[in-house]
Amino acid sequence: MLRAFYFLIAIFFCSNIFAQYEDAYKIPYPRRLKVVDSLIEVKIVGLSNTAIMEQVNLFEQTAKQNNDERAIIFSKIVRFGEERKQKKITPDEANATFTSIVNECDDINYPPLKALAYLGLGNYYYNSQEHKSTSYYYYLKSYKIYSKLSKEEFSWKSLSANILSDCFYKLNDYERAIEFGTSSIQYGLYDYYKIGVIDIIGMSYYRLKKYDSAIVYFQQGLDLAIELSKQNIHLGWQGIYEGNLGYCYQKKGDYTKAINLLQRAIDTTIKYKILDNTCGFATALAEIYLQSNNPTYEKYVPIAIQNTYIYGNNNDKYNLYSMLKRYYKQKGAFELASMYADSVLMFKDTLAALNGKLSVIKTDLAIESEQGVAQEKIMLKEIRQQNIIKYSLIALIILGAVIAILLSNRVRLKHTVAQKEIETKKLIFENELAMAQQQLKGLTNIIVEKNHLIEQLELENKNIESNESLVELQNLTILTDEQWNEFKNAFEKVHLGFLNNLKNKIANLTPAETRLLALAKLKLTTKEMASSLGVTTQAIRTAWYRLRTKLNLSNDTSLEEFVETI
User: Fold this and answer.
1) Which of 125, 146, 167 is the last residue of a domain?
2) pLDDT surpassing 50 at residue 42
3) How many Cβ atoms from other residues are within 10 Å of residue 235's Cβ?
4) Do residues 480 and 446 make contact, with C-beta atoms less than 8 angstroms apart?
5) Are residues 26 and 91 in contact, defined by beta-carbon separation less than 8 angstroms?
6) Distance from C-alpha of 2 to C-alpha of 159, rounded to nearest angstrom
7) Which of 50, 59, 56, 55 is nearest to 25 (CA)?
8) Assigned domain for 131 exists
9) pLDDT band at residue 406 under the 50/70/90 scheme
10) Is residue 164 within 8 Å of residue 143, measured between CB atoms?
11) Is the pTM of this model over 0.85?
12) DSSP conformation class of 14
């Protein structure tokens, strides 16, 4: 969605638009922006980055020839957006560029460009994995400005509100997601983007458990999706909205409507390969059938499993595990039911951490403090200048006091520091050990869980259209070099000295033998070890036979018995 902003900007710079731009100079501001906005609606397909930059240069040249300060600033904003996509720009460089642009906007006293500049800086941070949260602050700064402007003064009002709606939804602030989403539609958002924001509004109402309101928006989205599909646009959205409606009717207890909608949604999303939605719809449908003790649900279980493990997010996995817990309990497979019950608890904690309101709180604070930021900076500067002598004097007094204390209590202080260092190191070690134990337990559970899942899929393989998903899952169980390093680090902290003792006890120990003995130490079965190492169970037995021969051990000595002697 955010990339759409720069796409629209790029549209502005096609050749035929520049042929018309000269005419725009005959029209005074702010109507000139309205004319420009009408030109933006022209669609460009396949315009390369090089071609776009050529058009940016042409536009900037045209702006300079007409001595249009606003257009020159506008070209700088666009240039930054394109350069960001073509090369890496550091946060310091981005801030320096936009600080200069904002100052130029203040110099000419033109708020629309200032709002656009903050929007561009927000997009930069949103596309940065390390500083994504910073984007919300600049989006809100942009909103503070353009909310006071008319659509004629700020042509990107609808798209900006759309961006903020998406941001607040991801922050779990559903009320604001609805607020900005509805504003986006009111500002006149194009149908191409409208279909997405309607989904955000509907899902926000769904998360708030206001299912009737959610149904209203999902139905609007479905109607729009059907119309756009006739134009060969946004194919697959019809299935998404049918599935979302199915969610709502499931929550309302209208299972007849829910089943019909979810079945159609699964077929459509599979057809258009929107499989991250398929997994949720299949899980919901299996849940409905499970509640009614209807054997029809059986065919949706493997669909839910294979798509969730490959394409699902944490919420999808949580819902899947909750369903599988009841599924296996109903089938009498209590061991598997217990395993998935543990998985539910694990993912519940994970989701609690991920879905916390910390980001929302930060954004709220940004809104509340935004007005005072500039004034605060001025005040701080004055305070620093006025009190530099006082601070220096205080620093000298403190320094003298510290020196006196250090001299009089040197021996006692050294003892105290040493004791605190010991306690700190002990605490760090205990914390690292606990984390390593948890990490190792988690990795081990994943190995066991995936092995159980593969066994189940192999039993139900006849219900799966192809073996591709099964092969993918089998590959996912194999410990990669990166995963082994992570596993080894945690293992060495928990089982201190085990790997070193192995090296001392067994000469010329191979890496493969090391991995085998480490997995055996965790009491994994032969099949689980084979699955994790990407070999057959026979290969595991052969490796142990060679080790016994190397160590002159009796044939009665088992692998499990041997590792306990290390």
Assistant:
1) 146
2) no
3) 15
4) no
5) no
6) 9
7) 59
8) yes
9) low
10) yes
11) no
12) S
